[in-house]
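JOB MANIFEST
job_type = single_chain_structure
chain_count = 1
residues = 196
[input]
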Amino acid sequence: MAFGLVPRLRDTSSDICVISTVEDADFLARGLISELEAHGFADRIHFTCLWNDKIATEGVSLSPITRQYVEEFNPNDAIFVVVKAIISGACVVKTNLTRAITFSDPKKVLVAAPVMLEGAETRLQREFPSSISSKFEFLHFAIDNEKNGEDVVPGVGGSLYELLGLRSRKEKNRYVPQIVKEPRNRLYGNSGKAFA
């Protein structure tokens, strides 16, 4: 996936903010960041990790953010790379992207996922005004069109939390990714980071 991103990042000197959920941080986001660093973007990459809960009420799904880790960067004119292992209803991506753009004006928003459910791009674009959605670019390996309950088929092969050893949605929100605790702290130290 990083190879698809690289050409889209070369024509600018903007900061790059990789935005990930906690469950994708040590796996998908870390791999993406490592590849981008290997392609010469290390000094421009910044990381945001968000912990989402999930609430379904009266037919509406919400994914409130309960914690966040944000590295300092210039959010105006930056390139946001929202990475998620699988995008189905796009609720989590919408919530996380809304948080990221609340106080910023990104140049471009790259939404990257190995797997997306058919229609996820359109659902996500409808959630934002055209001034934002016109900046979206999508990268994926597969588009699936079937669901079995909560799981997209074949998707990632089942429930992401269990597959990653995080057991459940509740348990994964207690997890602090290694990418937050170790490598990024070595680069940036503990100053100026939000972790609540």
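[summary]
DSSP finds nine helices and twelve strands in the chain.
Residues 130 and 136 are 10 Å apart (CA to CA).
exit_status = 0
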